[in-house]
Write a structure and sequence with these properties.
Elements: H1 5-17, E1 20-21, H2 22-32, H3 41-49, E2 54-58, E3 61-65, H4 73-83, E4 89-94, E5 101-105, E6 113-120, H5 125-142, E7 151-156, E8 171-177, E9 180-185
Parallel strand pairs: 6-7, 7-8
Antiparallel strand pairs: 1-3, 2-3, 4-5, 5-6, 8-9
Organism: Hominilimicola fabiformis
Protein name: DUF5697 family protein
Length: 186
């Protein structure tokens, strides 16, 4: 099967980030590959016919996974958060064990801003704060001058967690409810 640029990009995203919603994949393909693309439905259908992907329902939407793949609920939420910044999005990558997704935006075309998305399970707030504060120290030690230190978005399970998450850096909170992300500021 011949794969075009869009299909290769879709398969790369799925290999790296697990299952993603069709609308998330479409937004990324349009943003990074072809802004004038009408939609990706035909490309997905061709991939599905040749058993390269599966399309399954999730949260009332179609989700694309690799065969025998899985859906990572936190990753789907992280992509929804990142896509809120789509107009300024320059790049993104999978994080480490604590940071689920790291992305970079440039609002003024000069200064790049790093934003880290971290899921916080109830009871792990102190560990996350220690990690974030340590990350900030490591960044400032390794850089001569940081014009924009990293920002943090914590994906919480309960609004009560916000009072227990108090890092020494810029942060906001997201609560995923009813297939939507709701932002909260401290």
């Amino acid at each position: 099967m011949y794969l075009n640029l869009y299909q290769k990009y879709i398969l790369e995203l799925l290999a790296e980030y697990d299952g993603l919603l069709v609308r998330q994949l479409e937004a990324l393909v349009k943003h990074f590959k072809e802004p004038h693309l009408y939609n990706i439905n035909g490309y997905l259908e061709q991939l599905r016919r040749f058993d390269k992907i599966e399309i399954v329902p999730y949260r009332g939407e179609d989700t694309v996974i690799l065969p025998y793949g899985r859906i990572n609920e936190y990753m789907v939420t992280a992509f929804d958060i990142m896509l809120q910044f789509l107009d300024y999005l320059k790049d993104f990558e999978r994080g480490d064990n604590t940071v689920l997704l790291r992305f970079y935006i440039t609002a003024d075309e000069k200064n790049e801003q790093e934003i880290n998305i971290v899921p916080v399970e109830i009871g792990r707030e102190d560990i996350i704060v220690q990690y974030v504060n340590g990350y900030a120290v490591n960044i400032s030690d390794s850089a001569d001058k940081i014009s924009h230190p990293p920002s943090w978005i914590f994906v919480i399970q309960d609004k009560k967690q916000m009072s227990r998450i108090t890092p020494d850096t810029d942060c906001s909170f997201v609560l995923a409810a009813d297939s939507k992300v709701v932002f909260y500021e401290r």
